[in-house]
Design a protein that fits this description.
Chain C: One of its GO terms (molecular function) is transmembrane transporter activity. Chain C: Part of the tripartite ATP-independent periplasmic (TRAP) transport system. Chain C: One of its GO terms (biological process) is C4-dicarboxylate transport. The complex is a heterotrimer. Chain A is built from 12 helices and 9 strands. Chain A is of the alpha/beta class. The model of chain A has no long low-confidence stretch (mean pLDDT 93). By secondary structure, chain B is mostly helical. Chain B folds into 2 domains: 63 residues, no CATH class; 340 residues, no CATH class. Helices cover 78% and strands 0% of the residues of chain B. Chain B has 21 helices and no strands. In chain B, helix 3 crosses helix 13, helix 5 crosses helix 6 and helix 6 packs parallel to helix 8. Chain B is globular and about 70 Å long. By secondary structure, chain C is mainly alpha-helical. The two termini of chain C are 30 Å apart. The N terminus of chain C is likely disordered. Classes of the chains: A alpha/beta, B mainly alpha, C mainly alpha. Chains B and C meet through helix 1, helix 2, helix 3, helix 4 and helix 12 of B and helix 2, helix 3, helix 4 and helix 5 of C. Bound molecules: sodium ion (2 copies). One sodium ion binds next to loops of chain B.
Chain lengths: 299, 423, 204
């Protein structure tokens, strides 16, 4: 049986590598019965297009960032809460919590079947100029993705969140069309954003989850025995991705520290009242956030 | 098999290429038994165009309209003429040099051929040049547009490959100059063969006036570069900024344009870009269907199995691209090829992504002038009123010259990557 | 595929009696041209909006007040311009085609091929119409109690697809596809009528 998995990340990215591992393990585990074709780099379309193909059952599996789901249901944006977890290890525990499980179960309403939460590196900040306090960020244009929760965090800091397609970012940062960006260490290193950076802020201020999903329509048609194998392999490898990011983040940070750009380490206090203001607003808009915070507290 | 036959059949019948691609995608869906893809067909057709980088296309064509209406193109032509007095075949070189200057403003071959056909061809015909040869030189000159920055193709490649577009632009400069030099040689040879006339020498006063007259027009490339490097605009937005500059120069400096010219320019830009954009949408839907059937990955695997040498890989790639360039346009070809072969090129063979991009874009540019699918060829044939078959024969020397430059760049990567290191 | 076109031509022959087509051709031609003028104006307007939005982007960013929604709107306006302009291109026969064979063959065969091209285009647009009808599924939508029920029953989430920054449903933008399909059909039928009429004149 041949299946397809779609991803937006390029082949060298951890997600794409893990998808290849999954394909290999499914092949071996089923004695060659299950073949999984991997389509990286958005070859089958962007996330919205992949989601639609999952819904009709044309595409079987995908790794979707939380962004695409947040557009459809703001509850999925609660993971973007600033300083929800300290680091990748904390994120790993949270993604196994009750709220994460509930949200994973609820993707059925999008015509999907959740297979587990993964993530990308913790969000950091790269700025063109010197930064010593949050006041140095106020008034600056910061590249973000156009999600309300993210935009709101920067607005509350007094910065000007500037959505921009990722491929345009390098030029835009080099020429100061944006003064900074919210990004992970992996991207900062691989896309050489440090070339034009004045300060790298190790803030670990946000996690960025990804969900592995199957097409709900297709899943029903998969033999029960194969469902068990696929669920086992997927959840193990997805968990490996999350676990890997603690090391990936540390490795890329170490590499960035070899550049001339100063790296400063900051915590929640650095952002002053912005973080509290964010929680006040989004606890109201998405009450599930409270339950998620309870999950954190329980750990 | 059915798919291949219906593709050839529709094309031979004279069905527009865009509709052939979109229709063959449908046939492929039926033939492969994946009828479920039909439910995504509409979204894919629409989504193929939902790309920020593509915004540059209507804007470059718009810019071309304003440059034409505002008399900017004519000034650049006169400037080139001022430099070349009574050389044999002078107007042919003038055409090429004007194309070179135009290429520093425009990023699209179609836009450039559209303008230059209106400017250069009638003038050359009046001076006694054979019409078809004049059209061929104009069409070849259009190839400079996507190589000399700014470049529509490099923008699309940068978007798909996720590498900095500014650096790609720089990587195109030396190859662009090489093609320019190669074309000079071709024109010299053509001049001997067809006995090109010489034009009258201009007086010094005439020359000075031509230079002074062209200065405001020469501001436009500076505005493009300045708006990008000054942090005001992205490369895509710079086309809008340049359009505004062209409107202002045409309205207030040259005063050849009136407010009444502005609206038709937008309509013309919409109609002109729609033809190309619809072709891209159709090509995207087609490539989505064949990707779904995993064809590109099989091609990549086959290439990988054939050789371990980067040079041989690049030569094979060029062969593949030449074939692909015959039947598609550069933009859909980039979208088809880059996600599949760039990782192989950089990961397996250690090829620099900028080198890869220049080779790819240069090669696909050639495809603009080859039948059966060559937008540049057909635009030039249409604008110049020459049969496309005749034109493609006349273009062969230019084609060979570009292919020679391409080989040079394949063997000496420094020609594409060197300048970036120097700057 | 040529086979399909001829079969198609035969099937359509009684419905489209040459006499009636010749009579309709001028009126259809006028309608097609008038529609194309309106479409060209709308597509031009869309490009103007694209231009204005990008300028607004440049200006607002340089004042430190970047606009969030401009890129997405500009891209969608461009797609509208593309489809509406593509329909105009059909009316004016500007789409790029390989005319090697049709030009080489004698006039009578060439005209027959032109008719076959029109029939192929109609066939494609007909299939596209069915595909779009099934995607938008207006009947299913009317029957369903709620949007959620519609999606759950049909695995079709077209009406629940959001835009990222514009706050409207995506299907409003997708509606350009059925519009394109209809106007394109009208232009092709007008062209077909003109070809048949022309052929009728050539062979009285
Ligand atoms: Na150019
Ligand atoms: Na070609």
């Amino acid at each position: 049986q041949q299946y397809r998995i779609g991803l937006i990340t390029p082949p060298p990215h951890q997600w794409s590598k893990s998808a290849e591992v999954i394909a290999k393990r499914l092949d071996e585990g089923s004695n060659g019965r299950i073949k999984l074709l991997v389509f990286p780099s958005g070859q089958l379309g962007n996330e919205a297009q992949m989601l639609q193909q999952l819904q009709t059952g044309a595409l079987d599996f995908a790794f979707l960032t939380v962004g695409e789901l947040t557009n459809r249901d703001p509850n999925y944006g609660i993971f973007l809460a600033p300083y929800l977890v300290k680091d990748a290890a904390g994120a790993r525990r949270l993604l196994k919590g009750k709220v994460a499980q509930k949200l994973s179960d609820e993707v059925t309403k999008f015509g999907l079947k959740g297979l587990g939460w993964g993530m990308a590196g913790m969000r950091q900040i790269v700025m063109a100029g010197k930064v010593e306090s949050a006041a140095d960020i106020a008034g600056k244009k910061i590249r973000t993705v156009p999600l309300k929760q993210e935009l709101d965090f920067w607005t509350k800091l007094g910065a000007a969140p500037t959505p921009m397609p990722l491929p345009a970012l390098y030029d835009a940062f080099a020429n100061r069309q944006v003064d900074g960006m919210q990004i992970d260490f992996e991207g900062t290193w691989n896309s050489k954003y440090y070339d034009h950076a004045g300060t790298i802020i190790e803030s670990n201020h946000m996690m960025f989850p990804m969900i592995a999903v199957a097409s709900g329509r297709k899943w029903q048609a998969i033999p029960a025995e194969d469902q068990v194998l696929i669920e086992k392999v997927m959840s193990e490898e997805i968990d490996n991705i999350v676990a890997a990011y603690a090391k990936i983040d540390a490795d890329y940070l170490a590499q960035l520290k070899t550049t001339k750009v100063p790296v400063i380490k900051v915590d929640r206090a650095f952002f002053g009242k912005a973080v509290d203001a964010w929680y006040a607003e989004w606890s109201e808009q998405t009450p599930l956030l409270g339950a998620l915070e309870a999950d954190v507290a329980a750990q | 098999m059915i798919v291949g036959l219906s593709f050839v059949g529709f094309l031979a019948l004279g069905v527009p290429i865009a509709f052939t691609l979109a229709g063959v995608a449908l046939i492929y869906i039926f033939a492969s038994g994946n009828g479920i893809l039909l439910q995504s067909y509409g979204q894919q057709l629409y989504g193929g165009l939902e790309n920020y980088g593509l915004l540059a296309l209507p804007l470059f064509i718009l810019l071309g309209e304003f440059m034409n209406a505002g008399g900017i193109g004519r000034r650049l032509m006169a400037l080139a003429l001022a430099f070349l007095g009574s050389v044999r075949g002078g107007l042919a070189y003038v055409n090429l040099i004007a194309n070179m200057m135009m290429a520093a403003i425009l990023g699209s071959t179609v836009a450039q051929i559209t303008i230059m056909s209106r400017l250069a061809v009638p003038e050359m015909e009046r001076a006694g040049y054979p019409r078809d040869v004049s059209v061929a030189i104009t069409a070849a000159g259009g190839l400079l547009a996507p190589v000399i920055p700014p470049s529509m193709l490099f923008i699309i490649f940068g978007v798909v490959a996720q590498i900095p577009i500014g650096d790609l632009f720089i990587a195109g400069i030396v190859p662009g100059l090489l093609i320019f030099a190669a074309f000079i040689l071709v024109i010299a040879w053509l001049g001997r063969r067809h006995g090109f006339p010489a034009n009258e020498a201009m007086t010094l006063t005439q020359r000075v006036r031509a230079v002074a007259d062209a200065l405001p027009a020469a501001l436009i490339p500076l505005i493009i570069i300045g708006s990008i490097l000054g942090g005001f605009a992205t490369p895509t937005e710079s086309a809008a900024v340049a359009s505004l500059a062209a409107i202002l120069v045409g309205l207030f400096v040259y005063r050849e344009m009136t407010l009444a010219d502005i609206l038709p320019a937008f309509t013309n830009a919409a109609r002109g870009s729609a033809i190309v954009l619809f072709l891209i949408a159709a090509a995207q839907v087609f490539s989505w269907v064949i990707t779904f059937e995993n064809l590109p990955a099989l091609v990549a695997a086959a290439m990988q199995a054939m050789t371990e040498s980067p040079i041989v890989f690049l030569l094979l790639l060029n062969l593949l691209l030449l074939c692909l360039g015959m039947i598609t346009d550069p933009i859909p070809a980039i979208i088809l090829i880059v996600p599949v072969l760039l990782p192989v090129a950089t990961g397996v063979y250690g090829i620099d992504p900028f080198h890869f991009g220049v080779v790819l874009c240069l090669n696909l540019t050639l495809g603009l002038l080859t039948p059966p699918v060559g937008t540049g060829l057909f635009t030039a044939a249409l604008m110049g009123n020459v049969r496309a078959e005749r034109l493609s024969l006349l273009l062969i020397p230019f084609f060979l010259a570009t292919a020679a430059v391409l080989l040079l760049i394949v063997f000496f990567p420094v020609l594409s990557t060197g300048l970036k290191g120097l700057l | 595929m040529q086979e399909t076109s001829t079969r198609d031509a035969r099937a359509m022959a009684p419905a489209l009696a040459p006499g009636r087509i010749v009579a309709c051709a001028p009126a259809l031609g006028r309608l097609s041209r008038a529609l194309a003028r309106i479409e060209a104006a709308v597509a031009g307007l869309a490009v103007f909006v694209v231009f204005s939005l990008l300028m607004a982007n440049v200006v607002s960013r340089s004042f430190g007040r970047p606009l969030i929604w401009t890129d997405e709107l500009a891209v969608n306006c461009m797609v509208w311009a593309a489809f509406i302009g593509a329909s105009v291109g059909l009316a004016h026969r500007q789409h790029i085609a390989v005319m090697l064979l049709p030009d080489m063959l004698p006039g009578r065969v060439g005209r027959a091929m032109a008719i076959a091209v029109d029939l192929s285009l109609l066939l494609f647009l007909g299939v596209l119409a069915v595909v779009l009808w099934r995607w938008f599924d207006p009947v299913g939508l009317l029957k369903a109690e709620t949007l959620e029920a519609f999606s759950a029953d049909t695995f079709n989430f077209i009406y629940q697809e959001p835009t990222v920054t514009l706050g409207v449903s995506k299907f409003w933008f997708w509606l350009v596809l059925p519009v394109f399909c209809l106007t394109a059909m009208l232009h092709v039928v007008a062209g077909l009528a003109a070809h048949v009429a022309e052929r009728g004149e050539a062979h009285p």
